């Protein structure tokens, strides 16, 4: 994935969130927004991606990315 891509995602095989630099733009981050808005915007993206580890797909992988179900 290109660093300019505006799309974070959860990779269950590696048990990682991929968070490219391109996500650091409005509405998730902007130098014109307050720090609290920036933390909230990025935090919401991170929380959303973490939730995929526990959804119907992510729950099928163990802590090292092996499919268990």
Automatic annotation (TrEMBL):
Residue ranges occupied by any Peptidase M13 C-terminal domain in the UniProt entry: 7-68
This protein's GO CC annotations: plasma membrane
GO molecular function term, any single one: metalloendopeptidase activity
InterPro entries: MetalloPept_cat_dom_sf, Peptidase_M13, Peptidase_M13_C
Swiss-Prot/TrEMBL GO biological process terms: protein processing
PANTHER family per UniProt: FI17812P1-RELATED, ZINC METALLOPROTEASE FAMILY M13 NEPRILYSIN-RELATED
Family in the record: Belongs to the peptidase M13 family.
Name recorded for this polypeptide: Peptidase M13 family protein
High-level lineage: Bacteria, Pseudomonadati, Pseudomonadota, Alphaproteobacteria, Rickettsiales
